[in-house]
Amino acid sequence: MKERVVSRVFRRSAWLACWTILTTAGAVSANGLKVYSSSMKFGPFDLETDSLQQLPGGIEPFGFEEPVWVIGYQSAIVDADGQPVDDELRCHTMLRTPVPDAWMGRPTNGIPFKGFFSDAYNLRLVLPEGFGIFVDVGEELDMAPMFNNRTDVPVVAGLEVTVYFVRDADLAEPLTPLYTTVASIVDPHMYMVPPGGDIRESRYRFPYSGVIRALGVHLHPYGRSLELINETRGETVWKGVGSVGENDRLIKMPFLQNPDGYAFSPADTFVLRAIYDNPTSVDQDAMAGFFIFFSTENGEFPPPPQAQLSDETHEPSPHSKH
Fold this sequence. Notes:
Layout: E1 2-3, E2 9-11, E3 22-28, E4 34-47, E5 51-54, E6 60-64, E7 68-78, E8 90-96, E9 115-119, E10 124-126, E11 131-135, E12 141-149, E13 155-167, E14 176-177, E15 179-184, E16 191-193, E17 196-204, E18 210-219, E19 223-230, E20 235-241, E21 243-244, E22 250-252, E23 256-264, E24 270-278, E25 284-286, E26 288-295, E27 312-314
Parallel strand pairs: 11-14
Antiparallel strand pairs: 1-3, 2-6, 3-4, 4-13, 5-12, 6-12, 7-10, 7-11, 7-13, 8-9, 8-12, 15-26, 16-25, 17-24, 17-27, 18-23, 18-26, 19-20, 19-24, 21-22
């Protein structure tokens, strides 16, 4: 049974009329906890032609009026009537806490936050059982729905987002808190891939220690895979390989749940390896990055290091084929 709830979620925006918040008691999880969901509608918007990374509604702040643990997230692209439309109109959405003041001015890679993402190939993410992202009373989260329109035709589209959570008051013991960070091939995150195969790498070190519990991948239509390699230990942590449709475009990426975890520290050097295959005769847009959900030894948010470690990026040859 659906219940319209205003007190559970707060919003501050001039676009308040664009949002509908419905909180619904959901399925009972394996550990006997009731899962709730908050569904939000954003838009619809008139998307510009042949334009990427559009934020027509800007960034929308919202939060909860009681302590909760967010455990899942999903989104859908819809038209003005609420009917599903092409998922590739979505670049990605992010629901996240703002960058902490202590981390301001540092490279994007490695900055910790609390948050989720979705894109055209990751429509629904669920954290491993026993883990969650804790959001306190009044703690601000930003919703950033970003659109792509690669066509020469104007498009009207909106976004529906559902957040799954458990109430902290329902827990006999807290869940294991997770935090999020991004590891991207390039920063800023957009680059272009030429016709043919494209293999690109960058080296990366976490500026803190932790344990990876889940991994999501963000790629664009002609992406094939993204691999995280621990160069220090000489092993692959995980390689996310996408499913490709008949038109040679990506249709789905896997999401890794790893409750046992993979420990990392600033002493580890990681290699990110992105593979694209562009079958067209012109350059195509690309992104390649991991959304990393991790825990810390003491459960606390990671403090900034004294000095930020730099990234090293290696450019591929224009037609390198894997």
